[in-house]
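Consider a typical record:
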Amino acid sequence: MNSLTQLAMGSSQDALWALCFAVGAGCLLTVLSRRLQLPTIVLLLLGGFALGPEGLELLDPNALGDLLPMIVSLAVGLILFEGALTLDLKEFKETSTVIKRLLTVGVLITWLGSGLTAYLVFDTSPAFALLMGSLIIVTGPTVIVPLLRRIRVQQKLGSILHWEGVLIDTIGVFTAILCFEWVVEGGGAVAIPSFLLRVASGAAIGFIGGYSIYWMMKKHWVPDNIANAFALASAMLIFGATELIKPEAGLLSVTIAGMIVGIKKPRQLREIKAFKAEIVDLLIGMLFLLLVARLELQQFIDFFTMGGGWVLFSVILIIRPISIAASAWGTPLNIREKALLSWVAPRGVVAASMASLFALSLSHNDNPVGDPALLESFVYSVICATVLIQGLSAGLFAKMLGLQRPAPNDWVIIGAHHFGRELARKLMRQDEQHVLLLDTNARNIALAKKEGLPALLRDGMEAEKLYEEEQALFGAGYVLALTDNIELNQILMQRWGEVLDNEKVFGWIPLDSPTTEDQLTGQSVFGDLSRPAVIGSELLQGESNFETVLWEEGKSLASGDWHPLFIRRGKQLKAVPHDASLKEIVKTEDEVICLRRAEGFLLRALHSGGLLKLECNSIESLYQQLAYIANEHVPAISEEKVLEDLAEQGRVFPAFLGHGIAIPHVYCEDLDYRICFVAQLNQGLTIPGQSEAIDFVFFIISPKGDSEGHLATLADIAKNCRTERMRTQIKSAESVDDVIVAIGG
């Protein structure tokens, strides 16, 4: 093997190691930062210096050679594609005046002000100074969102900062590309036409690519199991095709493609967003390590020697406050709120990536038009200063200004069905207790919003992503999984237990569930209640209602119909595990929020059923007719399943009350309410072990999981058939209304 071959192999191995190490170490640092609840960028910046040539020398980005600019460019493109998927033009139109001004007037002030400062302090051209200023326009949602969650500013201010960070990325990138074109081409006469060509080619391919992705998904050409891979591959193809036509136009094309897919909302969009978010986390970790490891401490020393400190002072303490003052002019924001907005403006991964990308391109330019090292030093110094200084002090600053909200006290209820909506309405208090509903059922969310309740059409399984990205969840401190599916509630509790403390995660788990508390993440609540859908049906029909009771020493709630759900103590809510546990946790003067299930379980079930006149010669024939009638009355009820359950019940515990009355009863998974049919038999059935022939039947079908209501209905039958007079009156009824009158009387 000759020396050239060995050299090539060694170079390839070094490049492979650099790429693999950057991906692996970046992901590990991201995980660590999430665990420590620190901004991801902080550990990535420190890790880049520590692992690179200036530190432990474990990572050498230069080993990638000419591949590095391509990797950075593609990674930035994919990051912008993912960000564009979340953009919504309607949301931009609905944002406040301050946000719209920040994205227009504020961008101009930041750009021109930073450029002017760089021009006055550094010995550089006006065009290069404007390029430097354009790179720090973006604030970056990957930094601002975790920061807002940690400092807990008032919701109005959090909303402004959040939307500025989400929407400003694309504006900043477009501005930076125009400035870069201007600098490289040497003036507007060449730069503007070249920029327009870049915009035209990028926009055209982006529109075509975005609509192609949507169209193929709409036509079901893309199987669900590869939709994520298809979206990723399509974004890379769009980016690559545009770069062939005009370098750096790929960033625009993937942004537009992602925006179109996000606006058109194909069926698989939710899964694509989740998948892309994970890819972006991986890319951000890799990018920061590769880019920061390239930097040398000497270039930062030179930067501050040249007056970089004055530039940072100007950017943070002069230009940002002027931008906020102009954007908030004539709005209700007071001086304290403007001061906080002026202080919080951290830069992130897009600024860093674009700076390094331009620096790499400029370093290969035959005609130097500026100092690439100065460009990178300026941008990374702004990133470090804004993230570290502002990030560490923003919470204290907000507290001093009286703009910090108390510790998260709001609740998230996963399940926007009728029970969830009514419970949220009962728990909410103006300016004190907020409740947010989550559901994947669009109809439930639409109903919640129509009723004036905060609600999001999102999957509660995406706990970490929701908690980090959704502004509406910034005050959330407690989560209640309230779906009909016990296993799903357990999984939801586990997912949310990873982002909140276990004692702040709750879920509906009935007492008869085989799962023990030791096997749960979080705490089970409402153990005596039926399925949420059953409770929702009762609330809808006025058969149940919420009541608030002020607890006093020695007080007790009537058993059976009263179910304590929450204890309100001051501004705190405490969920009640089950009815019997109330006395262990309640204190005098506590408010107890209860669900009161009205009496008369049998009467309500009879209203849903009817009276039948049957002719049968055996118990099997009776069961067959009952199963058929149940299916005919409610098609969702399986005739075969009812017949099977009745037969099994007859073998295990025959349903005979005595006095010629039978009470066959089953559960049905697809029911949300209870049904009771009454049947008169034309000819009595003689049953072994029964002293009287069966001539009257109560046939009960209850929702699965509603054991309390089911048993209460059976108890009502036994109570009302206790005397011969009542039995005679019931058996002689001509209609179900006569039975209801007899029982009600």
